[in-house]
Specification:
Length: 255
Amino acid sequence: MLSIAQIKVLKSCGEKTAYVVNFLSRLVGRHMDERLKNEIAHGRQIAMYAEDAWGWSGRIGSLRWQRRVRMLLDGLRPGARVLEVGCGIGLLTEEIAKRGVKVCSLDISQELLGKARDRSGNRGVAFLRSSAYELAFADSVFDNIIGMSVLHHLDMDSALNEFSRVLKKGGWMAFSEPNMLNPHIFCERHFFRERFHNSPDETAFIRFALKRQLKRHGFRDIEIDPFDFMYPGIPDSLAGRAEGLLKVFEKIPLV
């Protein structure tokens, strides 16, 4: 995809180049439309078994879930305005709402959003059906942007443009995302996409490339720490041993 700066340069080169830019813009537009359709269909699919889709049940699942919640939410301050991107069925939404913040949770899937609303009850959460590419908010309105397992579904340049726009100066973002250097994730993304119900466009990240991309969009003080190499299928009886062993992987510099 062309960045905004490249489009401006190309438009200044004359009518022929402007035509090429418009043509490329139409191609990008069609790609984005198709991508959104894929994610909407994916949301409809996982809504049918969403309680079990992320493997949070059992001892292993509980350990993985609690750790994510702490890492994502411990820096929240009461009264902050928080945007949750890709709320799914609202599991993380519940935890955010307990922190005394003003939260707006969005998702592209109407089915998942409905489940999130039902789960939240009357906690004062604002729910919005929206993509991450055209956020219906003024500039610099959120103190924090949070998401769990959502960035790898997105066109990152388009999403980061919007996140940068709506985030206040001095605000921060926190996301938990799949690591492509985790052997389980690598095999899942490359060889078993259909078995694990991956959407056509979702991927995973390598932290060095992700850090460069965030810097290009003006983000600073970036921390990307690998964690949670635990496979959801590990028996609960092995949870203690597995947790200790797999924490070793988190300390390997290249992972």
